[in-house]
C-alpha cells in the first residue's frame, strides 16, 4: 500500500493517527526508537523504488509471493539432489533480470561454462520460432551449432547489462558475497536487486560478520551452526542492501531418502536457517504424477492430481518430449508474504534447464489456507 492508497481508504482517523504519531516528540529524550520513528521508516519504505516486486516469471510462484520477490526477502529453494534447483535458480535469474532487476548469481557449484550453456538452452526454448528444445549438455559440448542456438547464446551475452555470474571458490565466505553485492548496490542505488546463492551449504561465515575471529572459526567447525549463521548473514545482507536474496539448499540425506517429502527441518542448518528465511519452497519432481502427488501434503493432494492431468496434456509439450517433461511442484513450507499451504504446479524439463508454469493458479486450490 502506498500513500495514495492510504488516502483512498478515506479513513481520516487513520491518517491523523499516523501524522500525530510522526510529529510526536518523546518528552523523555531517551535514546529509544518510538512509534514516530517507526512511522517515519514506514513513509520512507513507501517511497523506496527498490522494494517493488520483481517477477520470477512463474505465475504461481509470483502469486504466492504476493507479486514477486521484494527487497529484504530471504527465499529458500530446497530439495533433494538432482531435482532441478540450480536450473530453477538460473531461470529465476534470467527472468528477474528481464523484469528490470540487477541480478547477481553466485555459483558455488557449477562452472561458469555450464551456467552459460544452461542459460542458452533456456533462451533457445523461448525463441519465437523454436519448435523444439535442446539439452544444455549438448550446448556445453559445442553442439548443436544451428542458427537458433547461436541466437540464444547471443541473447545470453546481451543480458550482461543486468545479469552477473560470479563463481565462489571452495571455502568462499559470506563476506566475499557481501562485498560484491555492496559494490553493485553502490553503483545502482535505485534498482531492484536480486542475489542468488547456489547452494548455501557451500558458503562459510567470514571474519567480518557479526561473529568474528575465533568465534567465526569455531562456528564454522559445526556444520549445522555454520549453515545457520550463513543464513542469518544473508538475511542481514538482504536487509542492509535492500536486495531479495534466494538460496538453493541441499536437503539432508535423511529428508532426501524419506520418500522425498522432506520438511523444513530437512534444510541443512535447520532451525536458524528456517527461521531466517522469509519463505521456504520445496521442489519435487517425479516421472510419475501419482508418485509426485504422494510426496505432497495430504491437504494438497486432490488439487495436485487435477493439475497434473492438465499439465501432461497441454499442447506444446511434445516438442520437448526427448528431454523429459516431468510433472513437478513447488511446495510452499513457509511464507511471510501470503499463502503457505500451496503446491505450485510446474512442468520440469531438466535437460533444457527449463520449468514451465502449470495451468492452475494457487488461488484455485481447494481448501488452501494461510
Ligand atoms: N549434461 C547434462 N545434459 C542434460 N541434462 C543434464 C546434464 N547434467 C545434468 N542433467 C540433468 O539436470 C538435472 C539436474 O538439475 P539441477 O542441477 O538443476 O539439480 P539440483 O537440484 O540443483 O541438483 P544438486 O542438488 O545436485 O545441485 C538432473 O535431472 C540431470 O539429469
Ligand atoms: Mg544444484
Explain this structure to me?
This protein is an alpha/beta fold. It has two domains: 47 residues, no CATH class; 317 residues, 3-Layer(aba) Sandwich (Rossmann fold). Helices cover 42% and strands 16% of the residues. The protein has 15 helices and nine strands. The chain has a nine-stranded mixed sheet, sandwiched between helices. The structure holds adenosine-5'-triphosphate (ATP) and magnesium ion. The site of magnesium ion has 6 residues, from helix 5.
Low-confidence runs: 301-316, 359-370
Name the bound molecules: adenosine-5'-triphosphate, magnesium ion
Count of distinct strands: 9
Over the alpha carbons, how many angstroms does the gyration radius reach?
22 Å
Helix residue percentage = 40-55%
In the sheet with the most strands, the strands line up as: 3-2-4-5-1-6-7-8-9
CATH H-tier superfamily of the largest domain: P-loop containing nucleotide triphosphate hydrolases
Global shape: globular
Look at the helices and sheets and give the structural class. Answer: alpha/beta
Total count of helical runs of at least 4 residues: 15
Query: Largest beta sheet, briefly?
Result: 9 strands, mixed
Just give the CATH class of the largest domain.
Alpha Beta
Short descriptors:
single chain; 370 residues; alpha/beta; Rossmann fold; 2 domains; nine-stranded mixed beta sheet; 15 helices; 9 strands; globular; binds adenosine-5'-triphosphate; binds magnesium ion
Amino acid at each position: 500500500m502506498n500513500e495514495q492508497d492510504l488516502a483512498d481508504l478515506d479513513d481520516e482517523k487513520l491518517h491523523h493517527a499516523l501524522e500525530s504519531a510522526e510529529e510526536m516528540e518523546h518528552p523523555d529524550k531517551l535514546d529509544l526508537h518510538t512509534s514516530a520513528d517507526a512511522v517515519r521508516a514506514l513513509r520512507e519504505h513507501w517511497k523506496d523504488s527498490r522494494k517493488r516486486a520483481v517477477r520470477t516469471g512463474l505465475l504461481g510462484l509470483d502469486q504466492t509471493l504476493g507479486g514477486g520477490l521484494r527487497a529484504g526477502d530471504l527465499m529458500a529453494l530446497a530439495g533433494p539432489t538432482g531435482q532441478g534447483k540450480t536450473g530453477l535458480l538460473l531461470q529465476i535469474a534470467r527472468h528477474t533480470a528481464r523484469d528490470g532487476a540487477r541480478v547477481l548469481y553466485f555459483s558455488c557449484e557449477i562452472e561458469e561454462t555450464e551456467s552459460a550453456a544452461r542459460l542458452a538452452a533456456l533462451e533457445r526454448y523461448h525463441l519465437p520460432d523454436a519448435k523444439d528444445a535442446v539439452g544444455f549438455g549438448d550446448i556445453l559440448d559445442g553442439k548443436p551449432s544451428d542458427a537458433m542456438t547461436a541466437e540464444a547464446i547471443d541473447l545470453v551475452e546481451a543480458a550482461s547489462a543486468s545479469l552477473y555470474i560470479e563463481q565462489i571458490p571452495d571455502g568462499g565466505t559470506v563476506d566475499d558475497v557481501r562485498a560484491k553485492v555492496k559494490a553493485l548496490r553502490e553503483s545502482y542505488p535505485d534498482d531492484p536487486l536480486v542475489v542468488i546463492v547456489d547452494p548455501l551449504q557451500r558458503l562459510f561465515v567470514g571474519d567480518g560478520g557479526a561473529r568474528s575471529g575465533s568465534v567465526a572459526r569455531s562456528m564454522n567447525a559445526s556444520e549445522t551452526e555454520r549453515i545457520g549463521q550463513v543464513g542469518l548473514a544473508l538475511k542481514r545482507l538482504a536487509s542492509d542492501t535492500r536486495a531479495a536474496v534466494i538460496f538453493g539448499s541441499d536437503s539432508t540425506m535423511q529428508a532426501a531418502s524419506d520418500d522425498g517429502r522432506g520438511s523444513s527441518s530437512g534444510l541443512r542448518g535447520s532451525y536458524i536457517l528456517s527461521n531466517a528465511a522469509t519463505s521456504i519452497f520445496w521442489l519435487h519432481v517425479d516421472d510419475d504424477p501419482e508418485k509426485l502427488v504422494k510426496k505432497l501434503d495430504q491437504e494438497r493432494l486432490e488439487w495436485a492430481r487435477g493439475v497434473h492431468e492438465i499439465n501432461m496434456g497441454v499442447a506444446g509439450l511434445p516438442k520437448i518430449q526427448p528431454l523429459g517433461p516431468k510433472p513437478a511442484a513447488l511446495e510452499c513450507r513457509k511464507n511471510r508474504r501470503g499463502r503457505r499451504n500451496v503446491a505450485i504446479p510446474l512442468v520440469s524439463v531438466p535437460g533444457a534447464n527449463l520449468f514451465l508454469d502449470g495451468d492452475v493458479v494457487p488461488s484455485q486450490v481447494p481448501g488452501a489456507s494461510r
